[in-house]
């Protein structure tokens, strides 16, 4: 038992010898002078280290105590500190690009919020389709890279253009709703991403559309339209048939004969001329189906015999040429009488027939016809 206790004490003493002794200043003072040290007064004010940077003197109960500035740990003053980067994307390779994305997203969210306040979002599908068409004039990828001062990949360029398109849609909604302030604010943001060539092309399209809306007729009252079907192209001029003028005075000798005739009560049906490549329609199209195809828009609109038609058609066969002329005639009817547009549009006469001749396949006689199978 004594041996075990002695060994344990030796191990405990060795552990104590490894630790440095903790001796306080007041303990040393008391040992040298034989008196006990008094602790610091409790009413002394504590000064945090951070406040010492701007203090040269600290007043403690009326006594002036000077601190040595050179003995303090070195901390840079505010004027000597490193400048803060202007944006969080400063350390990226394309700081201006990412800052622009953040600004566009913020502008888009604010625009949508303003439209929701005015009860303009969300719009039903039919209202979105009724919006005026977009007129994009965005800069291409090379020009956008110069604007953002960094080379852009296709994915980066698409991301920027997508945000710009959404902002442009908000601008169109604000324009229709007469929200001038919101429209001007969005325009100021998006106009910096447009190119000069795109703006010129957009202005040209707008002028052409305005000229078309003002009046598609020339000074002689003629309309010029173009139609296509398969490989055929037709150019058609249409002019209104001149109605015969009614004579105010009728000779007395002919009054009895006019009143007796039955034709005097009903006017003669209007007659018009349809020339195709300077040939009458009955001679150019021997098949009745082709002739009916040409005059079908006039019959549906109730304008049969109201216009003289002159057409120039090139390419394709009789079926393609009659379809091309019919499309051009339907467009001409709308140019002269805009009220018939819903009728012709419902009959699908104002759009081009997209069907084309199917190509021949290798190993087949025609597009789908196969050769006769022979066993031997």
Automatic annotation (TrEMBL):
Keywords attached to this entry: Ribonucleoprotein, Ribosomal protein
GO cellular component terms listed in the entry, alphabetical order: mitochondrial small ribosomal subunit
GO biological process: translation
Ranges for region Disordered: 63-87, 248-271
GO molecular function: RNA binding; structural constituent of ribosome
Domain of life, source organism: Eukaryota
Family: Belongs to the universal ribosomal protein uS9 family.
Name of this protein: Ribosomal protein S5 domain 2-like protein
Organism: Pisolithus tinctorius Marx 270
Lineage per the UniProt record: Eukaryota, Fungi, Dikarya, Basidiomycota, Agaricomycotina
């Amino acid at each position: 038992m004594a041996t075990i206790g002695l060994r344990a004490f030796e191990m405990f003493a060795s552990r104590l010898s490894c630790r440095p002794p903790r001796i306080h200043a007041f303990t040393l003072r008391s040992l040298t002078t034989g008196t006990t040290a008094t602790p610091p007064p409790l009413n002394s004010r504590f000064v945090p280290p951070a406040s010492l940077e701007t203090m040269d003197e600290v007043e403690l109960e009326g006594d002036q105590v000077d601190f040595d500035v050179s003995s303090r740990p070195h901390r840079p003053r505010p004027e000597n500190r490193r400048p803060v980067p202007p944006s969080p994307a400063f350390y990226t390779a394309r700081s201006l690009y990412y800052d622009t994305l953040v600004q566009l997203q913020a502008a888009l969210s604010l625009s949508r919020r303003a439209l929701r306040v005015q009860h303009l979002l969300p719009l039903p599908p039919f209202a979105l389709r009724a919006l005026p068409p977009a007129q994009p004039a965005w800069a291409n990828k090379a020009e956008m890279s110069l604007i953002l001062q960094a080379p852009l990949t296709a994915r980066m360029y698409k991301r920027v253009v997508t945000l710009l398109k959404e902002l442009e849609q908000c601008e169109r909604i604000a324009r229709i709703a007469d929200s001038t302030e919101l429209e001007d604010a969005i325009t100021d943001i998006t106009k910096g991403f447009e190119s000069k060539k795109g703006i010129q092309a957009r202005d040209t399209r707008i002028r052409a559309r305005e000229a078309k809306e003002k009046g598609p007729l020339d000074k002689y009252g003629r309309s010029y339209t173009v139609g296509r079907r398969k490989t055929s192209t037709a150019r058609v001029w249409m002019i209104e048939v001149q109605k015969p003028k009614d004579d105010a005075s009728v000779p007395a000798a002919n009054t009895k004969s006019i009143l007796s005739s039955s034709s005097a009560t009903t006017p003669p049906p209007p007659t018009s001329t349809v020339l195709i490549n300077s040939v009458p329609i009955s001679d150019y199209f021997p098949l009745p189906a082709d002739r009916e195809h040409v005059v079908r828009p006039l019959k549906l609109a109730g304008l049969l015999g109201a216009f003289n038609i002159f057409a120039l058609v090139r390419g394709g066969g009789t079926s393609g040429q009659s379809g091309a002329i019919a499309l051009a005639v339907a467009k001409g009817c709308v140019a002269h009488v805009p009220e018939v547009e819903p009728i012709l549009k419902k009959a699908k006469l104002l759009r081009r027939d997209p069907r084309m001749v199917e190509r021949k396949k290798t190993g087949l006689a025609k597009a789908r016809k196969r050769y006769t199978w022979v066993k031997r």
